[in-house]
Amino acid sequence: MENQYNYYHSEEPQNDSSYSSQPNPEHHEKPKKKMPKAVVVTGCALLFGVVSSATFLTTNVVGNKVLGLDQKAAKEVSNTTQNKATLTKTSSVVTSDVSSVVESVMPSIVSITNMSVQQVQSFFGGTSQQEVTSAGTGIIIEKTDSELLIVTNNHVVADSNQLTVTFDDQSSVEADIKGTDSAHDLAVIAVQLDKISDDTLDKISVATLGDSTRLKVGEPAIAIGNALGYGQSVTTGVISATDRESQTTDSATGETTGSSDVKLIQTDAAINPGNSGGALVNANGEVIGINSAKLIGENVEGIGYAIPISDVTDIITNLMNQETKTKVSEAERGYLGITGLDVEDSDSQRYGMPTGVYISEVSRGGGAADAGITKGSIIVGFNGITIDSMESLQEQLQYYKKGEKVTLTLQVPGDGGEYQEQTVDVTLGSKAQ
């Protein structure tokens, strides 16, 4: 079943049957199938329309201190009896107060506000640019000599003109993009330490990362995030499943997105709009996942997804080590000098091609031509970031000026039809006239 992205207008009346279906005694219809025709995986970032003053749910589609669970957080009462054959029987009751865990983790969680400009379809069928504000969450993962580094979802910071981070003490500062990876829906943003007051620096902390490879189905899970843009809140549940696959389709464009080699954690802890990029933590206060999406649809309830932290540690580290980026103006922006087409999963399976950007044309005198890149090659990486579409490639290029050098990872077809990986340095040129 193919899942979809969609957009939800909060002012439209909603029928409760979108969450649970009751039969109508006045109509003798055949019972519906258990699963609906359209099941939606929604990336839980919250989108506000600034011009229309209306609230939208965007459905984009995935330490320094060891935090302990004290006796108040979990009390275990055990009665053990032992017979002559040395058989041991233990009965125990665990209470679910997680306040101590949350109190320890909350200083490492931030709210993120993204001011961006998006194309909006008008009532009469045309499109226009509109400034919108979206809300999400982030996790403080590193403090360097000059920056505070925060991991979140790529869809939380996508198309950003201005990012604002709000800390646990409600103080706010501007942030910049450090690195993004749309293929895995991950991003790292940076806040300059000299922008943060000493009082705030004393109150915040770096999150402790756990080991998501050791998760057991049924163990407690705590989701923390900026739900509905109201500020940090907490929901609890369990690990429902691991290694879940998810693929989504943007209902506005029909494009398949969100497919990844990383499988997701499923939880019944409520993950709502604004929770994207927030922390899924275990009973020890360790981050085991990055809240990313939820499954919505008729007869679907309590299915949320998080990106397992251990599976993306290398990706996050790579994003952390990139230079902090600011968008380059159109006049200064650098270009590869290619025309490209998306190679999606379906194309890859049908034609035996790697997923990425197929180079259908190389412009004479452009950076790609000067670097010896030829038609038919497939771009799969940009400065170490996975590239799976023209959109993800353009997302990276928007931070680089003409004359700057970038590194492309290519899959190049050989004489026998097999693809071979090549790494090529390209000096970006001007936009073709």
Automatic annotation (TrEMBL):
Family matches, as SUPFAM superfamilies: PDZ domain-like, Trypsin-like serine proteases
Start and end residues of each PDZ domain: 325-414
Keywords of the record: Hydrolase, Membrane, Protease, Transmembrane, Transmembrane helix
Pfam families listed in its UniProt record: PDZ, Trypsin_2
CDD domains: cpPDZ_Deg_HtrA-like (cd06779)
Keyword field contains Transmembrane: yes
Segments crossing the lipid bilayer: 38-57
Molecular functions (GO terms): serine-type endopeptidase activity
Residue ranges, annotated region (Disordered): 1-35
BP term (GO), one: proteolysis
Protein name: Trypsin-like peptidase domain-containing protein
Native organism: Mediterraneibacter gnavus
Organism lineage: Bacteria, Bacillati, Bacillota, Clostridia, Lachnospirales
